[in-house]
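job 3f2a | input accepted
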Amino acid sequence: MSAKISDQLIYQIGITLLPGIGDISAKKLIAYCGGAKEVFDQTKTQLLRVEGIGSKLAEAISNQSVLSRAEKEVKFIEKNAIQTFFYLDEDYPQRLKHAMDSPIMLYFKGKADLNQSKILSIVGTRKVTENGKAICDQIIADFKTEQLLIVSGLAYGVDTQAHKSSVENGLATVGVLAHGLDRLYPSANKALAKKMLESGGLLTDFPSETNPDAPNFPRRNRIIAGLSDATLVVESAEKGGSLITAEIANGYNRDVFAVPGRPGDAYSKGTNFLIKTNRAALVESAADIRYQMGWDQPTKDQVIQQKLFVELSPDEELLLKIIQNQQEIPIDLIAIQSKMPMSKVSATLLNMEFAGLIRCLPGKVYKVV
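job 3f2a | predicted structure (369 res):
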């Protein structure tokens, strides 16, 4: 890590350590000041002009006391070969970036591509039944020939089963943690976590020395929901973290799936509730998920061949070429690169979507079908 990058990282991490500031308010502060370092360059008087910044927070920023702790974190990162993703970085997970409350900073150890074309989160009860384990195993096994990244929370129960089954079937899997990367909870999953690092990894928005305290788990759940295209709930009681994750995923306009269970079974109550209240689509197999997500469509090469026979207007040809050159691209960048008015871009993209050429993702992001 170069000295320049290291210095920049200190300020980026420093913002996350400020007391009383969340991800949304931190982004507003960075936008107002023009950058992470610029936040700490402001005087207390200047900071008090920023909406939502009170005297206590302005004092914490201006005295820069958090920067010494941030320097310590940078040393930990360098020593342990940890990747960091600041929310303005190009390689920050694109799906998560479109969530308003996405983390300012992510810490990652592993080899997985967090912008992989297909990402599925799998969550559920910590007291998974044998039937739940079998369903989880079968669904993951049916995906083993595909480039699919499985995400979960490395907790007991369904999470552990999803990670374990992914490893056994040769699929990359990422565990999202509710603590820093200097520890692992539960400790019983240390051997599993080590295997996950070979092709998947461990991800968190918490710095080192952070314990897995109860309030951290709902924060962890927003990353699980936001990182993926869809969330699958295998088993759940009436209340629990997996229902929170499903609710967050719905809030992000992501697909949510649930495996139905027998009426009266304790760990079917949550999944059945999601289905009957239209919070999740009923799925029983990998084939159901493929169909719902459009993952059973022709491959990209096949689609390109099919497009040769589709009569496109010059505007459609231009926009299709722009989208094909990117894995995913937001509508504002399409307008900039095409040099077309936004109204014309929107209308053209809508026609192309109806024609089955492209797909609109949350946040007005487009990709080739």
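job 3f2a | The chain has three domains: 3-79, 109-293, 300-368.
job 3f2a | closed
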